[in-house]
Amino acid sequence: MDDTTVYRTTAWSAGPGCHGGCGQKLHVKNGKLVRIEGDENHPWNQGRSCPRVLAMTQYMYHPDRITRPLKRVGARGEGKFEPISWDEAYDTCEKRLNEIKRKYGAESAIFVQGTGRDIGGPITMLAYSYGSPNWVQLGLSGHSCYTPRLGAMKTVMGDFAVADCSQYLERRYEDPQWKVPEIIITWGQNSTMGCPDGFFGSWVVDCMKLGTRIIAVEPRNTWLSSRALHHLQLRPGTDGALALAMINVIIGEGLYDKEFVAKWVQGFDALRERAAQYPLDEVAKITEIPAQEIAAAARAFARAKQAAVQWGVPVDMCPDGTAVAHAITCLSVITGNIDKPGGQVIARPSHGVTSYPFSTEELVKLYGADLIARLNEKRIGADVYPMVKNFRGWAQPDMVIDQVESGVPYPVKAAWIQTANVVGGQSARAKFHLEALKKLEFIAVVDLFHNPTTMALADIILPAATFPEKDSIRSWWAPLISIKKRVQVGECKSDWEINFELAKRFNPEGMKRWKTLEDMFNERLAPSKMTVADLQQQGGFKMPEDGPFKPYFRHERGLLRPDGKPGFNTKSGKIEVYCDTFEGWGMDPLPFYTEPPQSERSTPELFKKYPLVMITGARSQLFFHAEHRQIPWLREKLPDPTVEIHPETAKKYAIYDGEWVYLENDMGRVKRKAKFSLQVKRHHVHTMHGWWMPEMEGKAPSLYGVGDFQINNIIPGPQCAKSGFGGGQYKTTLCTLAKISA
Amino acid sequence: MTRYGMVIDVDRCTGCFNCFLACRDEHAGNDHRPVSAAQPAGHSWIKVQELERGSFPKVKVSYVPVPCLQCTDAPCMRAATGGAMARRADGIVIIDPDKAIGQRDIVSACPYGAVFWNDVENLPQKCTFCAHLLDDGWTEPRCVEACPVQALVFGDLEDPTSDVARLIAQKPVEALAPVPAEPPPVRYLGLPTRFVAGEIVLGDGSEECAEGVSVSLRKGQQTFTISTDNYGDFEFLGLEADTEYVLSIEHAGYERFELHWNSSADPNIGTIVIERAG
Ligand code: SF4
Ligand code: SF4
Ligand code: SF4
User: Lower CB density within 10 Å: C or N end of chain A?
Assistant: First the structure.
């Protein structure tokens, strides 16, 4: 390997597909990536990687990868595409989107992304340069992924917070400032199976090795729950009741942090009264967890000197996900764990730099208050839902697709879809999405492989780059990172490059101050007083120094508020567990519980017909959401979409292990292979999401088997959160099992 | 003289498949003769087996990675003919990719399913401890390097200061079943065993967990006694297979509870409510 050069960069986006953050060593030979390994010098992952990174060479040089821009030459769904030049591709996008703007207004084009990758930055730049307010995770019912949690934290605490696994300290576990969390609650988060939301999953295992005990809030039995101090095996969707019952125990038994509460918490008595409405016995019935187990877990969490919560997307997918996130936040607050070593530390984008806007504040900083206010006028859902209006800049996904269908109050005519497989991925009522989107006049898709979305809908396809093929910056918590391009595959370009070019065409005036993408990155990096070149010189990353962007106890030191006074970044300077801001927006100022819209309790008749609670979306390290099914090394270990069924349940339905069956409800049926498993309770089934079959026919109507295998065909919409954020029914839909008769 | 070995800490393994992928990346399309030919699709030179034990509400999920154990007395070697297999001085058991052509018996001779058949090359193949890398100066194989939780510990068994030798000296390491007479160089920590676990609740409506209740497990003449923890939970690990056990619970002022079962299956115990005596 003498002629091989090793480069260091950071993973984010296409490739592993995840939310990124790990340092990787790229072994490059003759311009080609030949091997990739975790970078032992990088504090985030300390030399580690994951199966999807280890399979990068297969992903990047896959024979099916799209490496040139394509235009559709047959009818939509016929699967006929022809390669074109980048110029023609850009010209077409520019011309068609400008026509739509002239005819219907810029708001008639929607800008669609999927999971938390390096898309939020480039796609907002493009949408706002074009003039559309409709940036959306289309199909993700209730925007039930992270936004509800972010919204609740920001509103209640004035900041975001994360479980402290020493990730802010360059020396990590060896830094004496850090303390091992005595308890980590993994709340709806199977940490060993992935790295979501700017959190490296193995950090939890690292902490366990150092003595952390786990409280697993999780309906399934997992590796983590098997090793937990307490496994709170709740009924899916009842997380809000559980959190409130725990608050009630902690306050009722006087186990809360009295000093912290007196000094830093507003509305504690109101919270006490609210939580008292959730007595243990009642909540035990709601959640199906024994009362003494809930009480014991609450006590263990409260008695720990320092304790943290590492939570996941099921929180957002509860009905009223924002309220559930509010309740769980209160647990950390009343136990005084905020910004404390080994607790829940305030998390801010590193050095005050924005790479992926998480809040309205950041959008305003990047694009100006005027523009953001103007965008609110036509943004779909902003006039209906208080959180949609007041937090971040998303359009409301369930309303967007309804509007695509109805054309009311204004028509939607075009979509820019950026590495999001809407048809095969996140869309609840997936078939409805497919049919509605077919009506659009123009659809451009940026992606790396053909998938059900490109096949069914794309007029133009732009080939995106993987992370070793791109330049970018990243400030998702810490450290501050520059991602550096080391190889080129075909004619692929990064999402940033593609959007930068088009944004310049749509808004030459506003974009003219940046000649190159790097100019713009450097401007965005300004709060750090570093440039891309500086960061590269330092090895590609820089940890924040003591100050507003690094823990601990910043509220005591006056580092959180713009006025420099001690306190939190809220109006009162305290953490508002009784949240005036929510109240001002017409929402409940206190956390509350809502029963899932389908359940034994809320729909007993439906439950008789469909007595199984279908949990979808548990993760595997092999696939990220709807990706990687065409990567042989990964697919080999998980070749078929399975449904985990408790053996006794399977017996009742006369299903044998390995049999192909239907999961069925009033919306239709989806094929799965039965896998007997003790990991699910008797009246639950679990199945993974994101399944389509790259090896099947791509042309419509097959669309890679999406009609048979897309589980979201039988997940209903619309969302069910009063705030507009939360409540996708991905984990609580009722179903039954049926044999496939020959 | 170096003798390579590995300790696999099952308690740490989260089933992430990094080891499998790293092995694939090292060997797929890469011929490392004389120690190995390229690894084809379908081979798992390190298998990650998922195991589920127990019953609601005490279910345990574990993952057991199984590479070639480099057996000290290797049945595969006895099945090989014509010098197709050899043990190196460092203990690594090697299938010669040229001499082993056609020798399917090597696959069936391995009691751990560690040898895989290559249909195209007509060749049995397996883990080599990445001998080509060790010979090149590496200190550990690819799978060990890739494990994110250090469940795989590799080193020189002869060097008492190596991590692997220290683990073997200090921890209750075991051999994978079927257990051979001579312990193999690859050994395990925390292999899943049958267990019995439950939680005890006092049947008088009080909400407190039944802490400090005495729980005994009897097997023939042997009795083990423990007390429930402050959550009322108890757990006995390491039960022997196919054995008669008696579980009894005694608590002053409460009725005695007794359960008999055979450990060929995990007993369904769950929550035990003990009632006030009298
Ligand atoms: S594990 Fe199997 S292949 Fe490896 S040495 Fe032992 S018998 Fe041979
Ligand atoms: S030691 Fe090498 S050959 Fe053996 S399983 Fe690990 S990576 Fe594969
Ligand atoms: S890499 Fe480590 S944790 Fe992952 S499956 Fe292999 S042994 Fe287990």
Answer: C
Q: Are residues B123 and B22 in the same domain?
A: yes
With beta carbons under 8 A apart, name residues in chain A contacting B148: 48-50, 202, 205
Which pLDDT value is given to residue B268? Answer: 65
Å from A619 to nearest chain B CA? 11
Q: Which phi and psi (to 5°) does residue A87 adopt?
A: -60, -45
Q: Which atom of ligand 1 is nearest to the CA of B67?
A: 1
- Count of all residues that appear for chain A in the document: 742
User: Is there an atom of ligand 3 within 6 Å of B147 CB?
Assistant: yes
Superfamily of domain A147-348+562-584: Dimethylsulfoxide Reductase, domain 2 (3.40.228.10)
Contact list, B208 vs chain A (CB under 8 Å): 292
Domain final residue pick, B160, B189, B218: B189
Q: What are the extents of the domains in chain A?
A: 5-60, 70-136+358-464+492-514, 147-348+562-584, 604-715
Rounded to whole angstroms, the Cα distance separating A252 from A269 reads 11
Sign, CA dihedral B224-B225-B231-B233, equals: positive
Beta bridge partners of A613: A684, A734
pTM, whole model, 2 decimals?
Answer: 0.94
How many CB atoms sit inside 10 A of residue A516's CB?
Answer: 11
Alpha-carbon distance B130 to nearest alpha carbon in chain A (angstroms)? 16
Answer with the residue of higher pLDDT: A371 or A212.
A212
Helix pair angle (A321-334, A147-157), 10° resolution: 50
Do residue B231 and residue A50 have CB atoms under 8 angstroms apart?
no
| CATH code reported for the domain at A604-715 | 2.40.40.20
| Total count of residues recorded for chain B | 278
| A472-474 β-sheet, strand order | A472-474, A480-483, A541-542
Partners of A624 on chain B (C-beta within 8 Å) are: none
CA atoms within 13 A on the CB side of B165: 11
* Torsion A183-A187-A191-A192 (CA) sign: positive
pLDDT digits 0-9 by tens, B94-145 = 999 999 999 999 999 999 999 999 999 999 999 999 999 999 999 999 999 9
Does residue A729 register a pLDDT over 70? yes
Ligand 2: which of B13, B88, B130 to mutate, judged by most atoms within 8 Å of the beta carbon?
A: B130
Of B21, B28, B149, the CB nearest to A205: B149
What is the distance, to the nearest Å, from the Cα of residue A287 to the centroid of all Cα atoms in its chain?
25
pLDDT per residue as tens digits for the range B7-16: 999 999 999 9
Last residue of a domain, one of B189, B220, B246: B189
Reading the block at residue A616, the tokens are 């979808």
What residues make up the domain containing B79?
Answer: 4-189
Q: What is the DSSP string of B151-218?
A: -EEEEETT-TTSHHHHHHHHS--BPPSSPPSSPPSEEEES---EEEEEEEEETTS--S--TT-EEEEE
Nearest to A50 among B11, B16, B41 (CB): B16
Query: Which tokens in the block code for residue A87?
Result: 């110029």
What is the domain class of A5-60 according to CATH? mainly beta
* Same domain for B13 and B127: yes
Residue-wise pLDDT for A55-72, tens only, equals: 999 999 999 999 999 999
CB of A244 closer than 8 Å to CB of A274 = yes
Buried b (16+ CB within 10 A) or exposed e, A38-58: bbeebbbbbbbbbbbbbbbbb
Give the orientation angle of helix A360-367 with respect to helix A369-378, to 10 degrees.
Answer: 120
Which CATH architecture does the domain made up of A70-136+358-464+492-514 adopt? 3-Layer(aba) Sandwich (3.40)
CATH number (domain holding residue B72): 3.30.70.20
In the reported structure, the alpha carbon of residue A203 is separated from the centroid of ligand 2 by a whole-number distance in angstroms of 25
Given a contact cutoff of 8 angstroms between Cβ atoms, the answer to whether A101 and A129 are in contact is: no
